[in-house]
Amino acid sequence: MASRSAEPRNGNGTSPIDAVSLAIIEQLQQDGRRPYAAIGKAVGLSEAAVRQRVQKLQDQGVMQIVAVTDPLTVGFRRQAMVGITVEGDLDPVADALATMNEVDYVVMTAGSFDLMVEVVCEDDDHLLELINKRIRALPGVRATESFVYLKLKKQTYQWGTR
Known about the structure:
Elements: H1 19-30, H2 36-43, H3 47-59, E1 78-86, H4 90-98, E2 103-108, E3 115-121, H5 124-135, E4 141-148
Antiparallel strand pairs: 1-3, 1-4, 2-3
Helix pairs in contact: 1-2, 2-3
């Protein structure tokens, strides 16, 4: 197991998870199907201890283990980033966006937009319906600006735990 001089900190300066859990996360980021026994060997724990830690990390919302697909190969031909300007409280709008199946993530931002959302749609008609009939119809949404993806050059989830 690699030694760590510093662990990531949360907003109040305390370490959210220990070095062993960070090492487990790194192992799973390299290969989400890596057996718990192999992870245990790499981090110095038993298979059962790794299983417990992984479950706890998932239960706490620290991580998910999912299959990441190329949207084009599974029938989603249109991706876009949508900048949203909101009037009033951002939380209700962000919460409503988060319930939409087409929305991959919702980010509250500082700058030209209050919220940025990434959407994955079947085609341009689907994108138009989503933005025009559903996103713009949300109470508090004042304006949207869409940034349609022409080509995805890089998408990775292997940034490690730094």
